[in-house]
Specification:
Blueprint: E1 6-12, H1 36-52, E2 57-63, H2 71-85, E3 90-97, H3 104-112, E4 115-120, H4 125-131, H5 140-154, E5 159-164, H6 172-181, E6 186-191, H7 199-221, E7 227-228, H8 229-239, E8 255-258, E9 263-265, E10 284-285, E11 289-290, H9 292-303, H10 323-330, H11 338-360, H12 364-371, H13 375-386
Parallel strand pairs: 1-2, 1-8, 2-3, 3-4, 4-5, 5-6, 6-7
Antiparallel strand pairs: 8-9, 9-10, 10-11
Helix pairs in contact: 1-2, 3-5, 7-11, 8-11
The structure holds iron/sulfur cluster (3 copies).
């Protein structure tokens, strides 16, 4: 079997969105979509990069604004890559959507093309109303009930993406369990790293994580196949350590983000409308390519040792190797996010305490999940069978 060489491109095909989330990192919602000539230039650029790097796997991730506001462009881009790269390169399509425009027939079209859908969903209808208002005040919970049913019909492993803000931290347990109870058992949870978090917020959050650790244990005892990134990622940094910067994050090497106007950025959180863009982190343009000196500077900034982390025993496990996290709270890729720092120092001990208990009890699901490299296949078979 030949070695997998992966190249990832995040396509931001529009800055527009039908929601107005309080924490949105994507900047102002302007009616600026990718023009046909920028689409063609972007495809030419990416095909060139795939060939130059001899990649045999291309991940095309469609990200916000809301990509389904430009679904024809989305399908055109995906289909053109298929035609241009043929069978030599495995194409993996990914769509991150708020789900408001996701109909059953659209799900069918996406599935036929093998485009995996992830739903952004912060929890209960009350939480969603507070931090994710829709344009035109659509009845969000009604739409979501229909949408969740539809996505799960096509893929029982659909990922849910949930953002925790200081305001919603006190409802974290309710929000996660609500998402889970809808049938979405693969939950990626992240903080709004750009928000003003206080020590009191973290105390509240710690109480919620304690409740979730009991909930996680119960799921393991009931042999339920699930994923909760807040816990599972931190268990993995223990079982598969060390996590060196650059091991997990491939920005600057095999990953780029393309803005609707064709500007190239290192990753998704750097992409903003032209009037808000930070040109210092722009790597180039699809018509002209990446500026080598900018790329070299970025790469050296990313791998730099962080003096603020010197001597920290959590260094190998901390999430501040993610440039997007650091940039969203410090506007620098090389400076550790203080929010992430407090969060890791609070959460890792809670996760470790729970893991030690499950390990001591020889919990079979926990051991399979975190020590059997074939676990995901086993889980898939079990879930499909049960489903
Ligand atoms: S749905 Fe996504 S792009 Fe739209 S406002 Fe919310 S976070 Fe921003
Ligand atoms: S926990 Fe804080 S000090 Fe430790 S590695 Fe992470 S960011 Fe650095
Ligand atoms: S910067 Fe963060 S989000 Fe972007 S590829 Fe790296 S780890 Fe992933």
């Amino acid at each position: 079997m030949s070695k997998v060489i992966k190249y990832t491109v995040n396509f931001h095909i529009t800055h527009d969105c039908n929601m107005r989330c309080s924490y949105c990192y994507a900047g102002d919602k302007v009616k600026a979509s990718m023009s046909q000539s920028t689409i063609e230039a972007s495809i030419d650029f990416v095909v060139g990069e795939v060939q130059r790097k001899k990649a045999n796997k291309l991940v095309i991730a469609f990200l916000g604004g809301e990509p389904l506001m430009e679904k024809q462009q989305l399908f055109y881009i995906h289909d053109t890559f298929k035609k241009r790269l043929g069978d030599e390169v495995k194409i993996v399509g990914q769509l991150s959507t708020n789900g408001l425009l996701l109909t059953d027939s659209l799900m069918k079209e996406l599935t036929e093309r093998n485009i995996m859908v992830s739903l952004s969903l912060d929890g209960t209808p009350e939480t969603m109303q507070k931090q994710r208002p829709t344009i035109g005040n659509s009845d969000y919970s009604k739409i979501m009930q229909r949408t969740i049913k539809s996505v799960l019909k096509y893929n029982p492993f659909t990922n849910a993406f949930c953002v925790v803000t200081p305001e919603s931290s006190k409802e974290l347990y309710d929000n996660i369990t609500w998402i889970y109870d809808q049938g979405l058992h693969f939950i990626n949870c992240t903080l709004d790293y750009s928000a003003q978090w206080t020590y009191q917020d973290f105390e509240v959050l710690a109480t919620e994580y304690e409740k979730l650790s009991k909930w996680y244990e119960e799921r393991c005892n009931n042999v339920e196949h699930f994923y909760l990134s807040s816990f599972d990622e931190r268990i993995q940094t223990h079982t598969k350590k060390p996590v060196a910067c650059g091991n997990k994050c491939s920005i600057g090497n095999n990953q780029i983000s393309i803005a609707p106007n064709g500007d190239i950025y290192p990753c998704m959180q750097f992409v903003k409308p032209a009037h808000q863009a930070d040109k210092s982190v722009q790597l180039g343009k699809v018509k002209g390519g990446v500026v080598a000196s900018k790329l070299l500077q970025l790469q050296s900034d990313i791998i730099k040792d962080k003096p603020e982390c010197s001597g920290c025993k959590l260094k190998d496990r901390c999430s501040t190797w993610c440039s997007c996290i650091n940039y969203s709270s410090t506007k620098s890729v090389s400076k550790a996010s203080p929010v992430a720092c407090h969060h890791e120092k609070m959460l890792i001990p809670i996760v470790d305490k729970m893991s030690a208990k499950l390990w001591k009890e020889k919990n079979q699901l926990f051991i399979q999940k975190h020590y059997n490299p074939l676990y995901s296949f086993v889980a898939q078979a079990m879930t499909t069978y049960k489903g």
